[in-house]
Amino acid sequence: MSISQNITLIKEQIARSAEKSGRNLNDIKLIAVSKNMTADKAREAVAAGLVDLGENRVQELTDKHPLVEGAHWHLIGHLQTNKVKYIVGKVVMVHSLDRWSLALELDRRAREAGIVIPTLVQVNVAGEETKFGLAVPEVREFISEAATLPGISIQGLMTIAPYVENPEEVRPVFKQLRNISYGLREIPGVRMEQLSMGMSNDFAVALEEGSTMIRIGTAIFGSRK
Ligand SMILES: *Cc1c(COP(=O)(O)O)cnc(C)c1O
């Protein structure tokens, strides 16, 4: 199967999930995760109409950035504070804001560049030790404080669900992220409009639970070496 055939199939699945849960397709963004893939493959996705590309490493993002015309880059992986300077102006969104030092550095670099960086706060809903993200009880206070920083604009939440064979098992994780997001809507300066959740194996369930951004790698590009 080609990349464009995979994209067509996924779009059909997205349409089915949207219909099943009474959601508007315009509220759902498909992000092609091109990590470990060549710039050629990333270009194929853009040519097939998928302009939103996700990378989890800064180096890979900045390498591909000049090579893939027309792409909108999303940083979806852990971001080291000393690498923020390399991505300012190159990304449409940072999905992985997970600590105060990173919020301060994003804010500082964005203000220097005269821009505002759209961000999502990563939440470790399932409390997995191997994953980044704020613990659930920390989210409200963190967002209230980060919302005062003029260089970043907090637009929602992101989570990575544990890998499971049967995606039904992680439905509660997605449900919980949505509930947390509802509970934060009244914080001044915060727009809780985006829920970045769902990957190749669990995006259908994530969409049923209100995901607005799904991050798909394997199901588009094939397995990573
Ligand atoms: C790799 C990755 C994805 C995509 O995973 P697939 O299972 O290949 O779809 C999504 N989100 C993040 C944060 C990732 O690192």
TrEMBL record:
Residues 27-224 form the Alanine racemase N-terminal domain. The modification N6-(pyridoxal phosphate)lysine is found at K35. The keyword Glycoprotein does not apply. Keywords: Pyridoxal phosphate. It comes from the Bacteria. SUPFAM superfamilies: PLP-binding barrel (SSF51419). GO terms for molecular function: pyridoxal phosphate binding. Its cofactor is pyridoxal 5'-phosphate. Pyridoxal 5'-phosphate (PLP)-binding protein, which is involved in PLP homeostasis. Belongs to the pyridoxal phosphate-binding protein YggS/PROSC family. This is Pyridoxal phosphate homeostasis protein.
